[in-house]
Design a protein that fits this description.
The complex is a heterodimer. By secondary structure, chain A is α/β, with parallel strands linked by helices. Chain A is 33% helix and 20% strand. In chain A, strand 1 (8-12), helix 1 and strand 2 (32-36) form a beta-alpha-beta unit. The radius of gyration of chain A is 20 Å and the shape is globular. The N and C termini of chain B lie far apart (72 Å). A five-stranded mixed sheet of chain B has the order 1-5-3-4-2. A two-stranded antiparallel sheet of chain B has the order 6-7. In chain B, a hairpin with a 5-residue loop joins strand 3 and strand 4 (70-74). Classes of the chains: A alpha/beta, B alpha/beta. The interface between A and B is medium-sized, with 17 and 17 residues. The complex binds iron/sulfur cluster (SF4). Iron/sulfur cluster binds at residues 93, 95-97, 100, 102, 144-145, 176, 211 of chain A.
């Protein structure tokens, strides 16, 4: 994987008081650093106007995040919602996967790191404390890759021990990277799942060009397994193309040839979905990509997704290959309807809390 | 400091006009073939001809002197009208060419056009092409000074798309001028290779699409071309598409709709197959047309929607009876089967 090496670092003036800032600067010596006045800081939301020309992906922006760090996953509301929370402390990603939704609204903007980690931890503690009998599964990989920036931020070294002390909180670090060195030797207390977004080798090669290969991701996963972490895998996005069956079947086989399924907390399947305007970005930025030419129709939340029979056929086959390789593994579908779930698993969906209950049980099992 | 070339030099323009006298000259002394300064897309103008016939020439032509014959700077349409009216002498002002920057002269012509009428997209494209490629005005000056004057956003992309428009196939430009293609369709086709442009221009001789359908049509066409890694004209070369385009029994709009349906079917084969099967099975229920059965949008769920309206109890009972009868048939199971096993 090409490690992130910014050309410049912008520091919001208040962020100089945060230890996160000093640590990041120590880890990135020799990079030009500029202080930015608070009133000049534009948080990377689409509504905030265009960024200055130098605020591109070669810029790392360290700032105090003014809003909430913890939110319900955007999939909430889908029939088979898994009741997931997302914790955002970094925004944007340098890996540039062709289908990545971030390009449509964060585009080529700077990568942003929130330095007010104390606020983040307070917010998590308060949220979890308000419902002490509920299990919270919380992931950091929604608006950025959880670990791709970790060599610079070292966030995993703060988050993993923090979650180890939360009785009802479980952290999922979702990544395509192989940046796992910081996870070694941490006291995770069984409260961190390190999970990989995986794909067929062909998709890894053509659509996730800057990310590590499948073999490299699996080598990193194996390392984490040896350090005692539970693992997760997400075949997300599943992409339909001529020959997908052989390729995905091979990928499933490859995972479970090296990884012990007993140590895998869950595996999710999610067919490609995206807001309609993403297609234009993909066609322009990745003219070689065949992704825009799938048979997509508008679905849940107005997102485009493969026509239902295509999704169901993919899920059904994937489930059968996974069952062969790892019987008993907790498999779930991301952001799907009851109809698709039933068409894929070939049984009636037992009830709205089925998926979250299974995932809670899987993580508590330890 | 010397201004960049092409900066809209008001003073330069004014200096050209300053002190020029009106002259009456023979129309034979004017070279109407030379289009160095031409901006108008359409030279022939019936209203202009009528106006000159009724009240004569109101505004003098602006001509470039020096070598003979004179070149037209402003007044291509007036000159054309006067030639067709058989006038032999015209009133003109002459700009002497000596020591004159021709870019300034073109800028004057452009200002003159912009000041009294709205340029259409092809005229803007022609003007931008000339500023940039014939008079060497830097992009920066075009974006900053000229595009806003023409009502265009000062973006490089806008300049590029207009340059493509200018270079587009003449047949396509004619379709646009005749209102058969929208500007966004023309922009889309102008980005295609010349051979594809030519093919599409010829194809549209006998096919019409509403403005709304054109947008979808070209997206589907380009998607199909990308899927088959071929030129954008490729899907239209299909014998079935050609047969529709040549169907003498259909109107140009009907041909357009049929070709779109044909392409859509190729682009979304599973969806169109499912819709077709659903239509067949729901027909086999034998319900009257006043009872509508529709699947969930894009068959995303297994639900069916049944709708009817009844204006009195008798009709309501009749509809309910027909529905009850349909509910007892195996065709109903088969209809749900279509959705569940798409
Ligand atoms: S790794 Fe994830 S966040 Fe990064 S570009 Fe790829 S999809 Fe986007």
């Amino acid at each position: 994987m090409i490690p992130y090496a910014p050309e410049r670092i912008l520091v919001q003036e208040e962020s100089w008081q945060d230890s996160v800032t000093l640590e990041i600067l120590e880890r990135l010596p020799g990079v030009e650093v500029r202080t930015v006045k608070s009133r000049e800081v534009r948080f990377p939301e689409p509504s905030q106007g265009s960024p200055a020309p130098w605020e591109d992906k070669n810029t790392l922006f360290l700032l105090r995040h003014p809003g909430s760090f913890l939110k319900r996953c955007q999939g909430s509301g889908a029939d088979t919602c898994c009741n997931y929370y997302v914790l955002s402390c970094t925004w944007n990603c340098h890996l540039d996967c062709s289908y990545c939704v971030l390009q449509s609204y964060l585009g080529g903007r700077a990568l942003v790191v929130g330095t007010n980690f104390q606020d983040l931890m307070r917010e998590v503690r308060e949220k979890l404390g308000s419902s002490p009998h509920r299990i919270f599964r919380i992931g950091t990989g929604e608006l950025a890759d959880s670990l791709a920036l970790d060599p610079a931020t070292g966030f995993s070294r703060r988050l993993v021990p923090f979650f180890a002390r939360l009785s009802n909180g479980f952290l999922e670090l979702k990544t395509k990277s192989d940046c796992v060195a910081n996870l070694e030797g941490l006291d995770h207390g069984g409260h961190t799942v390190v999970s990989w977004s995986v794909n067929s080798k062909r998709i890894c090669r053509t659509e996730e060009e800057k990310a590590p290969t499948l073999e490299e991701r699996l080598a990193a996963a194996l390392q984490c397994q040896k350090w005692g972490y539970r693992l997760g895998f997400h075949f997300d996005p599943l992409i339909y193309y001529d020959g997908w069956e052989d390729d995905y079947r091979e990928a499933v086989g490859e995972i479970f040839r090296s990884i012990n399924p007993e140590r895998v907390a869950w595996l999710s399947l999610g067919a490609l979905r995206f807001p309609p305007h993403l297609i234009g970005h993909v066609k322009k930025r990745f003219p070689e990509s065949k992704i825009p030419y799938g048979e997509f129709v508008p679905g849940h939340h107005g997102k485009m997704r493969y026509f239902r029979p295509i999704r169901e056929a993919m899920y059904r086959k994937m489930i059968s290959w996974i069952r062969e390789a790892a019987p008993g593994l907790t498999v779930y579908l991301c952001m799907e309807s009851f109809a698709v779930w039933e068409g894929s698993f070939r049984i009636q969906y037992p009830g709205p809390s089925f998926t979250p209950d299974r995932l809670d049980a899987a993580i508590i099992k330890g | 400091m010397k201004k960049a070339r092409g900066y809209c030099r008001f003073r330069a323009c004014f200096a050209i006009l300053y002190g020029m006298d009106f002259q009456e000259i023979s129309i034979e002394e004017i070279d109407s073939e030379n289009e160095t300064f031409r901006i108008s897309e359409e030279i022939r103008s019936a209203p202009m001809e009528m106006s000159i016939r009724r009240i004569g020439q109101l505004n003098p032509l602006l001509l470039l002197g020096g070598k003979r014959p004179y070149r037209v700077v402003c007044g291509f349409r007036r000159l054309d009208a006067m030639r067709r009216l058989g006038l032999s002498r015209v009133s003109a002002r002459i700009v002497e060419e000596e020591n004159r920057d021709l870019c300034d002269v073109f800028c004057l012509a452009l200002r003159d056009n912009i000041s009294h009428r709205q340029l259409d997209a092809l005229e803007k494209a022609r003007a931008l092409h000339k500023l940039r490629n014939e008079f060497g005005v830097p992009d920066e000056a075009i974006l900053r000074d000229w595009q806003p004057l023409m009502g265009l956003a000062p973006h490089g992309q806008v300049l590029q798309s207009h340059l493509m428009l200018h270079a587009s196939d003449q047949g396509l430009r004619n379709h646009f001028k005749a209102g058969r293609l929208t500007l966004s369709s023309l922009e889309c086709i102008a980005a295609m290779p010349p051979a594809s442009q030519k093919f599409i221009a010829a194809f549209f001789e006998g096919v019409r699409l509403s403005a709304g359908l054109q947008k979808k049509f070209f997206v589907v066409l380009q998607d199909l071309a990308a899927i088959s890694a071929s030129g954008p004209e490729n899907p239209l070369e299909d014998p079935e598409a050609l047969a529709i385009a040549n169907d003498a029994a259909a109107s140009p709009f009907q041909r357009g709709e049929k070709i779109f349906a044909f392409l859509y079917c190729k682009r979304y084969p599973a969806l169109t197959r499912a819709e077709e099967r659903f239509r067949e099975r729901s027909k086999s229920l034998g319900l009257p047309g006043s009872i509508r059965i529709t699947p969930a949008p894009y068959f995303e769920t297994n639900d069916l929607k049944v709708e009817f309206s009844a204006s009195d109890a008798g009709r309501f009972r009749e509809m309910a009876r027909r529905l009850f009868e349909a509910s007892q048939t195996p065709e109903l199971d088969s209809l749900f089967g279509v959705i569940q096993k798409l």
